Amino acid sequence: MPAVLNRFKSALAEGRPLIGCWAGFADAYATEILGTAGFDWLVLDGEHAPNTIHTLSAQIGILHNTSTAPIVRVPIAEDWIIKQVLDAGAQTLLAPMIDTAEQAARVVRAMRYPPEGVRGSGAALGRASGFGAVPDYIATANDQMCLVVQIESRAALDNLEAICAVPGVDAAFIGPSDLANDMGHRGNANHPEIHAAMQDALARIRAAGKAPGILGLDPETTQTYRDWGAQMLGVGIDVLLFANAARTLAASWKP
């Protein structure tokens, strides 16, 4: 019995448009609700949300039998946390702050068993192997690993083609806010210079044969990103959806 097919990876390779949302509540109950919404993917955010390996594992488990793919954004692209989330059942990672091809290649190796990589062989302890019930997991898992690298700096833009050329990189995801900060437009991802850089980057990613991705926070901006060719399109963040709905409701009833 081989490792479970990574349907998200297959859909990326087929060029299908994939719509997703950020899951930032760090709570399996909230993620379970999001899992009923029909998104193609959810980012379980370990970088900026208060997630731990326990909360990430619980959310991966909740989505395991849904049509929504869990994508874990690790807090930092280091071997120690990568091996934990993979053993917990993640097949797709979002790696933040990837500036060079060397950094991307290091993440690829961390996601794979030897000889292609350096992943430790302890999967029987985790959900990834069905707690030991999938006898061929280690022999077949490498092919199901999917890596989305985040492009969030001028250095990353300069090295974009080299990053996309790394075997094992499946998609490159633009981070508008961090990119704007790095380019000197702190807090203004809608500056014309940032828009030009992002539009160009999305086209370069696609030209390199990888799936381009980005996150929008309002319908107009998100539609613009879609028009620019984003295949992996984030359309919201659960925390902001809740906060904005609650504030609107309260304001509508206050005198």
Low-confidence stretches: none
Note the overall shape: globular
Q: What structural category arises from helix and sheet content?
A: alpha/beta
Instruction: Supply Rg.
Output: 18 Å
Mean pLDDT: 97
Q: Please tally the helical runs, counting DSSP H or I stretches of 4 or more residues.
A: 12
Estimate the strand proportion. 15-25%
Helix content: 40-55%
Description:
The protein is built from 12 helices and 8 strands. It has helices spanning 7-13, 28-34, 53-63, 79-87, 101-110, 137-140, 154-158, 160-164, 176-182, 192-207, 219-227, 238-253, and strands at residues 18-23, 41-45, 69-73, 92-95, 146-151, 169-174, 211-215, 232-237. Strands 1-2-3-4-5-6-7-8 form an 8-stranded parallel beta barrel, surrounded by 8 helices. Strand 1, helix 2 (28-34) and strand 2 form a beta-alpha-beta unit. The protein starts with 6 loop residues before the first helix and ends with a helix.
Helices and strands in order:
Elements: H1 7-13, E1 18-23, H2 28-34, E2 41-45, H3 53-63, E3 69-73, H4 79-87, E4 92-95, H5 101-110, H6 137-140, E5 146-151, H7 154-158, H8 160-164, E6 169-174, H9 176-182, H10 192-207, E7 211-215, H11 219-227, E8 232-237, H12 238-253
Parallel strand pairs: 1-2, 1-8, 2-3, 3-4, 4-5, 5-6, 6-7, 7-8
Helix pairs in contact: 2-3
